[in-house]
Design brief:
heterodimer; A: alpha+beta; Alpha-Beta Plaits; 2 domains; ten-stranded mixed sheet; B: alpha+beta; 4 helices; 4 strands; about 20% helix; elongated
C-alpha cells in the first residue's frame, strides 16, 4: 500500500529548529513542511520588503535551510514551506545560495507567486468582512494577500522541485499538496481533500500535536518538554492518518493531544473553509494505536466555495503603553491609586484616545476583576495601554505612567514605556478566478 | 466540581473570535458535559469579557464540544490592547467553571465511575 510520511518542522516563524533537524536526519520522511506564516506576518513582511526589495521573506529562512537542506538531500526528503512570505522569489534565491554553499549542486527550488493581489483587490474594491471596503482604508493599506490552495504546490512538485517556497498559502494546503501529488487525488474528490486537509490541520502547528501546549501538571502530564519531538504524519492513499513522533524525543502523541489540535482555531467543525475544499471534521474519529501513535479517520469534505480569503494588512492606529510595579503591604491599594492618577492625568492633559485599558497585572489583567476576586497578591504591576491616532499621543500614555516615579504613590519600581504603530489585518473574499499563480523553478 | 475535573480545553483565535474546545478526559462523561456545559453557561462564565454571541458545536465522536465566542478578543489579536491578545488563557479560565457534582448524577447515567 502506498503510504507517505510527512514531518512538520515548524509551527510558527520563531519555532525551535532542533526537532526539524532530527526529523530531516532520521525521520524516514518523504516530505518536511515548515509552516511559518501567522495572520499578520505577511503584512509586516510586505513592510520589510518596501524597506529592502531583496527582503520580505522569513528572517530564519537561511538558518533553517542551512540546518536541514543537506540531510534532506541525503535522505530524499522534499521540503515545502511558506517562508517566502512577501517575497517567495527572493526566498528561493536565498535558498539557492545556501544550497550552493553546501555543495548541493542541481537542487531544484520552486517559488510560488501570485498570492499578492493588492492591485486586483483595489480594482474590485473588495468588501471587508467587518464592514466597509478596501477603498475606505485609503492610503493606510499595506498589503492584500490571498490564501492560495494546493494547486501550484502540486504543480511545482510535478515539475521536480526538491524545495517549494510559497507566500500566503493556506496552512493545511502545504500538507495537502504532497498527498494530492503522491496519490493522484482529483481536485474535486471532496472527501479525499477533506481528509487530507484534516491531516494538514493536525500537522501544521508542529509540536502542538505532540504534547506542546498541552501539559497541566497532575492532570495532563507530558514528559521532557524541553526536548519535544515534532510530529510525523503517515498518510494512506485513502487519506487515513497515523500521527506519531520519533522514538527518544520528548512529548507524547495521544488521543487527547490530537483532539485538542483537531479543534484548534476551528469554528463550525462541519464547515472548515479552505481554498481547495470545505472540510468536515464533525464525524472524525481519533483512536490510540500504540505508544505515541494515534489513528485519525472519518474526515469528509464538500465542494469549495470558489472564493479565496484575503488577508489585508493596514496601518490601524497607534498603541501607547506604560507599566510600573508596587510590592509589599498595600501594594494593590497603591496600584489602584496609581491607575486613578493616570486616568485623571490623561483627561487633564487632553490625550485623545480611542480606547483605554487599565490593568493590575498579577491580579486582574487577563479576564477582568470578576473571575479573580478574592486573591490578594504580594505585588502588582500596573499597566495602562491606549489606542491613539498618532505616535506623539501614544507616547504621552507611557509618560504619564513613568512620571509616577516623582508624582505618584510610594514605592513604584521598574517603570517601562513604549509607543508603536499598529499593523492590523482585515479579511475579505475574492473570486479564485481573479488570482493567478506562477511557479518559477531555480536550480542550484 | 470544576470543569477541569472531567475535561481539558484549548482556545484558538481568528480575528475577534475565540474558539474554545472542551474535551472529556473520559469519553463516557460526554453526555454529562453536553447536558451541563451549554452556550448559556459559558456565556455567563465569560460575562463582561465576551461581548458577542456564544455558539456551541457538538462532536460526540470525539467526546468534545466546541464553543465559538464572538467579540472575545478586544478587536482581534492584531489590534487588541489586552495582555493576552490571542485569548490563549481563556481555555484555562473556562476550566474553572463550576459543574453540578457528577456523583449525584450517577443514577441518571448509570453506574459508578472511577
Amino acid at each position: 500500500m502506498h503510504r507517505i510520511r510527512i514531518g512538520s518542522g515548524a509551527g510558527y516563524s520563531g519555532d525551535r529548529i532542533e526537532p526539524a533537524i532530527d526529523l530531516a536526519e532520521r525521520g524516514g520522511l518523504d516530505y518536511l513542511v515548515f509552516e511559518c506564516l501567522a495572520e499578520r506576518t505577511i503584512a509586516l513582511a510586505q513592510q520589510a520588503r518596501q524597506r529592502d526589495p531583496a527582503g520580505g521573506y522569513d528572517p530564519l529562512l537561511t538558518v533553517r535551510m542551512t540546518a536541514v537542506l543537506g540531510a534532506c538531500r541525503r535522505n530524499g526528503v522534499r521540503l515545502i514551506t511558506n517562508m517566502g512570505a512577501a517575497n517567495p522569489l527572493g526566498a528561493a534565491e536565498a535558498t539557492r545560495a545556501v544550497a550552493r554553499s553546501l555543495g548541493l549542486d542541481g537542487l531544484r527550488i520552486a517559488a510560488v507567486t501570485g498570492d499578492d493581489v493588492l492591485a486586483v483587490a483595489r480594482e474590485l474594491d473588495v468588501a471587508l468582512e467587518d464592514g466597509g471596503t478596501l477603498r475606505g482604508l485609503g492610503d493606510r493599506v499595506i498589503s492584500a494577500n490571498a490564501y492560495i490552495g494546493a494547486g501550484p504546490i502540486v504543480e511545482a512538485l510535478a515539475a521536480g522541485a526538491d524545495v517549494v517556497i510559497t507566500g500566503r498559502a493556506a496552512d493545511p494546503a502545504l500538507f495537502l499538496a504532497p498527498m494530492v501529488h503522491e496519490f493522484g487525488w482529483r481536485m474535486d474528490d471532496w472527501d479525499a481533500l477533506g481528509r487530507g486537509t484534516m491531516a494538514g490541520h493536525l500537522l501544521e502547528c508542529a509540536g502542538q500535536v505532540t504534547g506542546g501546549y498541552f501539559a497541566d501538571p497532575g492532570v495532563k502530564d507530558v514528559p521532557e518538554l524541553a526536548r519535544l519531538g515534532f510530529p510525523i504524519g503517515e498518510i494512506d492513499a485513502d487519506g487515513t492518518l497515523e500521527l506519531t513522533k520519533l522514538p527518544g524525543t520528548g512529548g507524547c502523541v495521544t488521543p487527547a493531544t490530537v483532539k485538542e489540535q483537531l479543534l484548534y482555531e476551528i469554528h463550525d467543525p462541519a464547515r472548515y473553509y479552505q481554498p481547495d475544499v470545505v472540510a468536515d471534521f464533525s464525524a472524525a474519529r481519533v483512536e490510540g494505536d500504540g505508544p505515541d501513535r494515534v489513528r485519525v479517520h472519518g474526515g469528509r469534505g464538500a465542494a469549495r466555495t470558489g472564493l479565496l480569503k484575503l488577508s489585508i494588512g493596514y496601518i490601524d492606529s497607534c498603541i501607547g503603553e506604560g507599566q510600573i510595579s508596587y510590592a509589599g503591604p498595600g501594594a494593590v491599594e497603591r496600584g489602584r491609586l496609581a491607575l486613578d492618577i493616570v486616568r485623571e492625568r490623561l483627561a487633564l492633559t487632553g490625550v485623545r484616545t480611542q480606547e483605554l485599558q487599565f490593568d493590575l497585572i498579577g491580579l486582574d489583567a487577563l479576564h477582568g476583576d470578576r473571575l479573580s476576586r478574592g486573591h490578594a497578591p504580594y505585588e502588582v504591576r500596573l499597566r495602562v495601554a491606549g489606542r491613539t491616532a498618532t505616535l506623539e499621543e501614544a507616547a504621552r500614555i507611557g509618560n504619564e505612567v513613568e512620571t509616577l516615579y516623582t508624582n505618584g504613590p510610594a514605592g513604584g519600581g521598574g517603570a517601562w514605556k513604549s509607543a508603536r504603530e499598529i499593523v492590523a489585518v482585515a479579511s475579505a473574499l475574492l473570486p479564485e478566478s481573479a488570482v493567478r499563480t506562477t511557479v518559477t523553478l531555480l536550480e542550484a | 466540581m470544576k470543569l477541569r475535573d472531567i475535561a481539558h480545553a484549548r482556545s484558538g483565535d481568528k480575528g475577534n473570535i475565540s474558539n474554545i474546545s472542551v474535551i472529556a478526559l473520559d469519553e463516557t462523561d460526554y453526555p454529562f458535559l453536553a447536558e451541563h456545559l451549554t452556550a448559556q453557561s459559558v456565556a455567563a462564565h465569560f460575562q463582561g469579557i465576551v461581548t458577542g454571541t456564544v455558539t456551541r458545536y457538538e462532536l460526540p465522536t470525539l467526546g468534545a464540544l466546541n464553543f465559538v465566542l464572538t467579540g472575545a478578543l478586544g478587536g482581534g489579536v492584531t489590534r487588541s490592547l489586552a495582555l493576552d491578545a490571542h485569548g490563549k488563557a481563556l481555555s484555562s479560565a473556562l476550566l474553572d467553571l463550576e459543574l453540578p457534582n457528577r456523583n449525584r448524577q450517577n443514577n441518571q447515567y448509570g453506574g459508578e465511575r472511577p
